[in-house]
Design brief:
Bound molecules: 3,4-dihydroxyphenylalanine
Strand content: 15-25%
CATH class of the largest domain: Alpha Beta
Largest sheet: 7 strands, mixed
Number of helices: 11
Number of domains: 2
Length: 343
């Protein structure tokens, strides 16, 4: 067989086989058969070296042309089969609407954030503005401006994390009081929510890290009676019913008189349990009339103005509201615990 007939035969064979092609796999197979390293066109090249010097360039050219033809045809075929196959696959894919949906993991607010927001909303509805202060503060704003002298024994009540001689992690949100007084003139009606830190033993009732909302009101003729009324109103709004409160005289250097506000333990209804230390009552806030020295620190004339202040422990409140028996749950990040609180 001459080389010429071989070329013709291969072309015919290819055209014939190409007609039978049904899918992209067939094309890939033909590619190997004709264009592969051991393919038919390569075998033609072997014959080329037996051809005469005149024939060689002629046949060489013809083989190359055939190779190009086959390459182009196979490439076009591959593209069109692949796109048909893709269409078919997509058309055959049905959506089974009866399958259960994929559940999205949804984040939610931490119970303390929920409660903090509720407390803020209530005070805002009562006409209080919201201010914030720094977590890392100076001894001055956390203590001295609040009438705690340097060697005041009341400092021992607040086991402070000092960063150096002057700076500390605030032990209460009362540190915002004098900052606000420096910034605004009375009447001032303000709350300051935030984090607090104390170097305490961690137990079911106390933690080194907790939240407070400070509340204070300064104007002419602000009275102790209006403080009681404000806290009563606040508690009823928060618990959405009239709840029993009691006020006990207490001491804080920045208020005079000072007191503690208790709520009858909602967990044991006053019977006595671990959370209320078997007293039947839970201390929820400290409060009092702002000490004249504190007003002076803030540049406010105590002869003209009076004010009241209160500080609420958010963890305590949350334990009451959600019936949580141990304060440590709040910081353990246990999803089973956290997922119980809905928006
Ligand atoms: N700052 C106090 C504390 O953390 C709580 C407190 C007591 C705040 C009495 C007040 C107040 O505003 O009047 O122990």
């Amino acid at each position: 067989m001459t080389l010429n007939t071989q070329i013709l035969k291969i072309r015919e064979k290819f055209l014939h086989e190409y007609k039978e092609v049904k899918n992209s796999k067939d094309i890939e197979r033909l590619k190997i058969e004709y264009l592969g390293k051991k393919g038919l066109l390569q075998s033609l090249m072997l014959f080329l070296k037996d051809a005469s010097t005149e024939e060689r360039p002629v046949f060489g050219k013809e083989i190359n042309e055939l190779k190009n033809e086959i390459t182009i045809q196979l490439e076009n075929g591959l593209i069109s089969f692949l796109s048909k196959e893709e269409d078919k696959k997509l058309n055959n894919e049905e959506i089974d609407v009866t399958l259960p949906g994929r559940k999205n993991f949804q984040g939610r607010f931490h119970p303390l954030t929920l409660l903090m927001n509720e407390v803020i909303d209530i005070f805002v509805s009562m006409g209080f503005a919201v201010e914030t202060g720094p977590d890392v503060d100076s001894d001055y704003y956390n203590f001295e401006a609040l009438n705690f002298a340097k060697d005041h024994p009341a400092r021992d009540m607040q086991d402070t994390f000092y960063l150096n001689d002057e700076m500390l992690l605030r032990t209460h949100t009362s540190n915002v009081q004098v900052r606000v007084m420096e910034k605004f003139k009375p009447p001032i009606r303000c709350i300051a929510p935030g984090k607090c830190f104390r170097n305490e033993n961690i137990s079911s009732r106390s933690h080194v890290f907790f939240h407070q909302v400070e509340m204070f009101y300064i104007d002419e003729k602000v009275t102790f009676a209006s403080l009681l009324a404000t806290m009563d109103e606040f508690c009823s709004k928060l618990f959405k019913k009239k709840i029993e409160t009691r006020f006990r005289p207490s001491y804080f250097p920045f208020v005079e008189p000072g007191m503690e506000g208790d709520i009858k333990c909602i967990i044991c209804s006053g019977q006595g349990c671990k959370v209320c230390k078997h007293s039947g009552w839970l201390e929820v806030f400290g409060a009092g009339m702002i000490h004249p020295e504190v007003l002076k620190s803030g540049g406010i004339d105590p002869e003209k103005y009076t004010g009241f202040a209160a500080g609420l422990g958010i963890e305590r409140l949350a334990m009451l509201m959600y019936n949580i028996k141990d304060i440590r749950y709040f910081t353990q990040n246990d999803l089973k615990f956290l997922q119980q609180f809905d928006l």
